[in-house]
Structure formats: structure tokens, C-alpha cells
Amino acid sequence: MPINIPEQLPARELLREEKIFVMDEGRATTQDIRPLNILILNLMPEKEKTELQLLRLLGNTPLQVNVTFLNTATYESKNVSKNHLDSFYTTFEHIKHRRFDGLIITGAPIEHLKFEDVIYWDELKQIMDWSKTNVTSVLHICWGAQAALYHHYGINKFELSKKLSGVYSHVLNDPTVELARGFNDQFNAPHSRYTSVSIEEIEQDPRLQLLAVSEEAGAFIILSRDRKHIMITGHLEYDACTLGEEYERDLKKGIDIEMPENYFPDNDPKKEPLNTWRSHTHLLFSNWLNYYVYQETPYEWE
């Protein structure tokens, strides 16, 4: 799916180097199709890295995708330039009159806070409520998934005894679900968080389906029965190096942190880690765009 993104976005040239199909606006307007409009609420601190990771995945299926980046008005990130935000991002006030085919809400490194103590929690609640009628399907990642479970279903997060960081094995509970089309029965995925959610509470809620789970990392892929919400508690979008970069960052901050599990070859940080989750990441995003967005969204929003 070629993605139509601003000409000056830094991720553009990196995507082209990776042979990801990036389309310019001139070519996009000559195609007689209705592109998918995807909104990305990017709550991650290093926004340019997250942009690249997500755009890489949205550009891998057969239709056109228009991407709009959203940031919070109640909190301005300190890890990206104001010029970058002003050039490529907008706020909810400017798009709330629109309708989108899909919405991605990313994670955020704020698990130590209660949801109500997050500066932009009220704004995020407003966006999540708005998405019920203005978005066909919403994909929530890590903290974004926990926020959705809490806001929409009343399932709160709980603190872990130590940071869950590493690459873990997961199993599918139902391989016939469209989101998991093409998945192996067992697959890897990276996690990086200090909190988790209750498997029991998810399984007891008739509105939810637990699609994939890990013995070590817990609930991983949770679906709403109405197909509206998909909640991923890990970071399938991560590059091979991302967990290692987070580990080095925490060490430099003096944080007492353990090495990511099942990540560095031979548990040697000097050895380059391998991406063992890439294929399933592409499958999940492709399946989401096809079955939960493209096949479900109206051709014309009324």
C-alpha cells in the first residue's frame, strides 16, 4: 500500500532507501481510487523513530494510504523540535470534524503514572470517545492498549516487580481470526514496559477476545468483539536495535535495569540482535488494514 506523506518528512528518504513504496501527491491524485485515511496519535518521545517504524508497516499493502500525524495540545514533547511538530503534526481541535478509516494510538513511557495523573489524559479520553463514531478501527499499542482497556472496558493496569523487557514467545488462542491470518501458531514479539493487565479480567469480559498470550509477557493481542478496537501490549513495530537502545539509555541514566531477555545473541550486548518478529508485524498491520479497515470502512462517510 503506497503511502502518501509530506515531501519534507525526514522518514521519507529512509523509506525510499528501504524500497518502501512512497507516493508523491501528484501521482496520488491521478489514481482513481479512494485512499484510506489513517490518523496516528504519536505519544512516543522519539517521534521521528516511531514515524519511520509505523510508516514502514503502513506502506506494505496494495492500496493508497494518506497519513495524518496527531500530537497532544496539552503536552508538547521535549524530544522533538517544535519545527518538526509544526511542520508535520496537527492537534485534535483541527481534525475533530473529520472522519478517518483507521487510528493508531502509540505507547508512551508513563506507566508509573495513574491514568488520571497523565497531563493529557482528558484530551486522550476525548479522542478515544470521538473515535467511536469517527473512526472505523483503532489500533492501540503498549501503553495505548492499556489506556484503551481502562477507558473503554474498565480494566486497569498493575505494576510489575521489574521492567518487562525482551523478546518473548507467544501462542495464538484462535488462528481463524482474520487479524492473525498467516501467523504461525507460535511467534516472537518484543515488550518494553513496567506494567501489565489481567488475563482473567480480559477473559471474563464478553466484549473482548484474547487472541494471543505469552507465558512470560502475559496478554498480548486483545480484540473487541465489535472489531472496533485492537490492543497490542507489546511493540511489534520496534526495529531490531530498539530494545538495545532503550537498555543503553537506561544504563546511562543510572537506572538499575536488567538486560533485555532473549534479545542479544548469547546474552552478549556487543553482539547485534536479530529481528525475529518482522514477518508477523507485517502480517498484523496488513491484516488490520485489509480486514478491519478497508473491508469495513464506508466508501463515503456520512
What can you see in these coordinates?
The two termini are 25 Å apart. By secondary structure, this protein is of the alpha/beta class. 40% of the residues are buried. Strands 1, 2, 3, 4, 5, 6, 7, 8, 9, 10, 11 and 12 form a 12-stranded mixed sheet that branches. It contains 10 helices and 12 strands.
Task: Describe the structure concisely.
By secondary structure, the protein is an alpha/beta fold. It is built from ten helices and twelve strands.
In terms of quaternary structure, the protein is single chain
**Terminus-to-terminus distance:** 25 Å
Instruction: State the secondary-structure class.
Output: alpha/beta
The biggest beta sheet reads:
12 strands, mixed
Uncertain parts: 28-32
Tell me, rounded to a whole number, the average pLDDT.
Answer: 91
Q: Whole-number radius of gyration?
A: 19 Å
Topology, pairings included?
Layout: E1 3-4, H1 11-17, E2 22-23, H2 25-28, E3 36-41, H3 47-58, E4 65-70, H4 82-88, E5 89-90, H5 92-95, E6 100-105, H6 121-134, E7 135-141, H7 143-153, E8 157-172, E9 186-197, H8 199-204, E10 208-214, E11 218-224, E12 229-232, H9 242-252, H10 278-294
Parallel strand pairs: 1-2, 1-4, 3-4, 3-6, 4-5, 6-7, 7-12
Antiparallel strand pairs: 8-9, 8-10, 10-11, 11-12
